[in-house]
Each structure stands twice: as C-alpha cells, then as structure tokens.
Predict the 3D structure of the following.
Amino acid sequence: MSLRVAYIAANTFREAVRDRVLYNLIAFALLMSAAAILVGQISIGIERLVVVNLGLTAISLFGIVIAIFIGISLVSKEIEKRTLYTVLSRPVQRWEFIVGKFLGLAGTLVVNTFFMAIGVFGALLYVAHGLNPQDGWIAVALYFIILQFLMITAIALLFSSFSTPLLSAVFAFSLFIIGSFAGDLRSFAGMAQGVTRWLAIGAAYLLPNLSSLNVISSVAHQQPISIQLILSNTIYALVYTGMAICGSVLIFERRNLK
Amino acid sequence: MTTHARTTKIAATALLVCLVSTAFALHHLDRIQTQTTSEDVLYLSSPKVLKRLSLGYDGLLADLYWTRAIQYFGTKHYQHARDYKLLAPLLEITTTLDPHLIVAYEFGANFLAPPPPFGSGMPQRAIRLVEYGIRNNPDDWKLYYNLGFIDYMELKDYAQAADAFARGAKVPNAHPALKVMAAEMAQHAGDSQMAQIMWTTAFQSAKDPYIRANAITHLRALQVDQDISSLETLISVYRQKTGHPPSSFTDLQEIGLLRALPLDPFGHAYKLTPGGRVELRDPDNFPFITKGTPPGYVAPPVRFRPEDLGAS
C-alpha cells in the first residue's frame, strides 16, 4: 500500500519538475539579489528586515500560487489525459491515488521552499555580514509556511476532486484570502447575535485559520515564537489537512469516472 | 532568404522599434505628468484598511511604506519644500503595519519635528508617533530619548523632556546618560551645555551613519555658536575698555583678552567685520548654526560631509 502511494507521489514530483515548476527559483533568486543590493540604497535601516520580510513573503506567495495551480489540476489533468484510467486499472485504490498526489505536490513545495530558504539565509548573510542565534526563528516561520502549503494543497485537491480547474482555483484562492482574515471572522462571530452568531462561529471553525501560521513580521524582528504556538499550529494544520484529504477521498471514491 | 527567415527578421526589427518607441513614449509621459499627480497622493490613507489588505504580509508592506516615506522626505527636502503633507500619514501607515519598526519612529520623528527646511515642522505629530512607538515597544530606551529630545529641542518643554528621560532611565539596559539628562534638565534646561550632552548621546548611541553625521554636524554648530558668543563678549569688553571696536582679533590678544587666534571646528579663522561682528569664513560648512552668518545669508539645504557618513 505505502509503496503504491510513494510511487504516485514520486511521479507527481517528477511531473512537477518536468512542468518547470522549480523555474520560480530563478525569479526568487533575482528578487532576493535585487533586494539585498538595492534596498540599502533607497531606504534606511531596514536592509535586514527587507531580506527577511521579502524572502519569507515571496516563499509563501510563490508556494501558495504553485499549491493552488498545480493542486487544482492534479486530478482533472489525469482525467483529461485519460491517464487516470491506466492507473486505476492497476491494483491502486482511489484513496491511494489522492494521498499520493497530495504527497507528491507537498514534496515539490518542500524542496522548493528548501532552496528558497537557502537564498534567504544567503542574502541575510550578505546584508548582515553574519547570522545570530535569533535568526534561527526564521526556520520556524519557514516551517509554518510549509504547514500553510499543506493546508492549501489539501484544499485545492478537495475542490479538484469534484469541480472544474477554474472554479477550483477561485474557491481555493477565496479560502486562502478568507483564511488570512480568520481573526476578524472570530471577532465578528463574537459580536453577532442569534443565528448569525452561530453561523459565523461555524464558518470560523470550518474555514482554514491561516493567520496564526503567519509569523513573518515577528521573526523579522527576531522575536521568539513560543513552543506552544509551534505545537498548536502543527496539530491544527495537520488535522485540517487530514480533514480536507479525507473529504477529497470521500468525494473521489463516489465519483463516477465513466 | 526563406519566408521563415524573412518573418523572423521583420518581427525582430518590429520588436526593437516598438521597444524604443515605448521608452520614448514613457519618457514623454513622465515629462507631462505633474509632480502633484505622481507624488502627493495617498490612494489608501487608512492604516487599518491597509493592514487588512496586506493579508498578513504586513511586514513587507511596512518596509515598502517606510521606503516611500524616506523617498518622499528626501525628494521634498532636496526641493527645499516647506510643506510635507504626506509625511505624517506615511509614517502612521508604516508604524501601524509594523509597530516594531523602531527605525521609523527614530528617523520619522526627526523628519517631522524640526521646522522647515530641516523637517516638516510638526513636533506634535512627532510626539504622537513616538508615544505610539513607546506603547508598542515599552522596553526601547531610544524612543524615550527621542521623545525627550523633541520636547527639549523643538517644544522647549523642559518638564516634559525631563519626564521622558526619567521614564527612559527606568528601562532595562537604558543608556546611562538618560538618568543624567533627567537630573540635569531641572538645573540647566535651555543651556547649550545641555544640548551638547544630548547630541553627544545621540552620536554615541546611534549606529546609523546619517544619525551620527547629523549629531556631529549639530555638535559643530553648537561649538561655533559658543565660540561666537564668547568672542562677542570679549569684543564688548574691549569696547568698554578702549571706546572703539577692535579692528582684528590681534587687538584682543594685545590687551590680553585672547591667547590665540580663534579657529572654527574645521581649523579656519573666524572673521571680524569692521562693525565688530564675528562671522564664519564659510558658513555653508555649518548647517544649524544660529550665529556667525553675514546679513541676508540663506543657508543651503543640509548636506552631510562624506567623511561624517563614514565615506573615505
């Protein structure tokens, strides 16, 4: 079972690399080099901050765009090209296909993030002429960004399992934006009355909370991240990702592929 | 030549022509657009709305707004502008997006507080900005120092300045000079000696070359003001003794009022005018001076010396 999932994951990774997904690393490298060299000349006192803020924001946004655009086509492309039938005619369960696809894209994003992280630390080394122990918190921010990717990939896969690529992209982007306002949604739920209150509370718990996974500003100022937050975010992101994958599996299992 | 090769050649030439034409058209557009439409507009002026729209990437947006504030102030300052209407909103947006961006409070307050042409002449907005910074970063002693500095230099509110220094002195790892300044303020408020202590502290505590250059330029200006005050006192003593003004500083030396010829901080001799006024040979070297300039002198925009900025 696990071997079949691993094969699908490996093929998904290979396909993403063949689709030149990792070419975004070139754009990222150019962005970081330009930021590291130019910011000192046009601004004052924020050279280090810009490298961290710009680097982590770019990693996050590039990754989210990849997660959504590749994620929404993971299933639909296989159906369109009819390669799905070849896979499913072999002893491969539908859920194995979904989980393998998810792990393949997640792996691509982790590799992508790893190379980008090297770029961020390189630029930081150039700008700050060295690293200090507090810069280690950047690794925590990167870990949170990867957790974000897992959630977004799972959400894109969920929509991809029953909708068209265009609609899936719209839904996934909408959830990403709403997820960034999760704190406001909770505040709104707290202020609302009656049925609206319950609906808002329900929505606040159902929609992804991406805002607590964004600690870019804090680590840019070398502020520590509590172990409690790391643990809570890990549990939340993994459970939410699991929930979205289960949803995808449930829908895909019942989908008529004829 | 094949059709394919001809098409490639024509397309490449057309591409090049279009590229050059675009550059010319853009250049023309830049010339006809007024400065007002391109610069003095804040499409989104609410810091809270911008924070929401940043989708959590508020740190990067704050860096962009801070850079915009720097560019805005720099451009206006270069143009000898006396109106900096976007400066305060830009700084408020920057610090709402990133309340821990200390550099925005430190520099921002120094841009806002001094009167034109050195700043935008809004000391109250500067105080509001620094107070906001203190609320968000209560353990940063430099913010209390900045607050006291504005109270002292711009508002001449010595009680408030003493209070700010005293609050800052209680912060862990605060610069020891804060305690001294809080205590000295009561006795020597308004003295140039006090101003000297404050600029020296600014010079010692800052890492940024611009802050250090600004501090050292102010210290030189204080030195010049002090020298000229002392020389003017000696000249009036000479007048009382002889009944006429001295024709040169040598006259003062001859009757024992002066030991050596007085020199400015760059080693140039001061000038004595026939009317008995003391002037600098090159006042452009000393922005911020209040004495020693010829009648009708208009100071050029402040330019820090490359060696003060750490350039070789």
About this structure: The interface with chain A takes residues 52, 55-60, 62-63, 66-67, 70-71, 98, 100-101, 103, 106-107, 208, 210 of chain B (CB under 8 Å). DSSP finds 13 helices and two strands in chain B. Chain B has a mean pLDDT of 85. Residues 206-312 of chain B form one domain.
